[in-house]
Amino acid sequence: MAEDDFDQLLLEIRDGFASLPDKPEETPESILKALWMMAAGEAKSAELAVHCELPKLSTPAQDHLQDLIGAWRTGTPLAHLTGRQNFCGMELLAGPDALIPRKETEILATAALDLIARCQTEHPVIIDVCTGCGNLALLYASRFPRALVYGADLSEAAVALATRNGEFTGLADRVEFRQGNLLEPFADGQFDQRVDVLSCNPPYISSKKVSLMPEEISGHEPAMAFDGGGFGISILQKLITEAVRYIRPGGYLVFELGLGQGPSIIKKMERNDRYSHVQGRDDEQGNVRTIVARIAP
Ligand SMILES: C[S@@+](CC[C@H](N)C(=O)[O-])C[C@H]1O[C@@H](n2cnc3c(N)ncnc32)[C@H](O)[C@@H]1O
């Protein structure tokens, strides 16, 4: 298979292509290149594949490519077909066991990295709950080798994928993953008032809306990763209440939230005297997508 074939397949993929707002890196070209590389036996995320020189495909590899394109057309997420997703420049394993990390979460990642950089302690203690495939916890460990990083998730399958990602990225000995409900895995007392930065990308979609999400999401990614209860904010509220036990005075809670949830959550936290300097971080459209809150000294 050569250049002409690529152009023909690209036309076919463009036909009827609908971009997903939370996966802007997936364009017809990056999708086809990622599937082509996969058919050639090289697993790459869309973000990396788009820059690759494409190898020639053998006849069996061409058949494999057709199968991959077929599966993508019928709604299987690209990251499940390649087994890869890129997050903040870090290539990770992806699969049905946990949410595929989204570009929008880079707002939370950037805010958390800034906070960790400001920590005065030699070995800052960082916890990431609702860690999913471990993307945030592993990113913190990769950028701050002296930090003591922990990640946790309620889903055993997600924790297993995060653990595999620790090995895949070579960071297995720098992040400890635990399983349990929100902060319960850290409730043995040793983390009380010791955490410098607590980060979280919780489920924040209302239960009713989860089943109405595009088939590529609702049919393939775990509902537990999205479902934030009746109004979408039950886990967020639990986090805001429980985090104060763990974060040291002057430390930070930083979390992602859904479109439209920012203003009311900021007001609520400003009324809570355990928090000070509550700030929103916006996306390019001016929507608050991450909140940074300091624990009152
Ligand atoms: C939106 S996903 C975030 C995954 C990952 N941190 C990311 O940024 O891509 C939310 C995660 O929260 C987990 N989760 C849901 N309810 C939870 C709970 N009560 N305690 C801990 N984790 C929970 C889900 O399993 C899922 O992995």
Could you characterize what this model shows?
It is a single chain. The chain has 297 residues and is an alpha/beta fold. Helix 2 crosses helix 4 (59-73) and helix 6 (105-118) runs parallel beside helix 7 (135-143). The strands form two sheets. It has a seven-stranded mixed beta sheet with strand order 5-4-3-6-7-9-8, with helices on both faces. A two-stranded antiparallel ribbon has the order 1-2. It has twelve helices and nine strands. The protein has two domains: 3-82, no CATH class; 105-295, 3-Layer(aba) Sandwich (Rossmann fold). Strand 3 (125-129), helix 7 and strand 4 form a beta-alpha-beta unit. S-adenosylmethionine binds at residues 98-99, 101, 105, 129-132, 135-136, 153-155, 158, 181-182, 201-203, 224-225, 235.
Question: Which helices and strands appear, and what pairs or packs with what?
Answer:
Layout: H1 3-14, H2 28-39, H3 46-49, H4 59-73, H5 78-82, E1 84-87, E2 90-93, H6 105-118, E3 125-129, H7 135-143, E4 148-153, H8 156-169, E5 175-179, E6 195-200, H9 207-210, H10 215-218, H11 234-243, E7 247-256, H12 262-270, E8 275-282, E9 288-295
Helix pairs in contact: 2-4, 6-7
The structure holds S-adenosylmethionine.
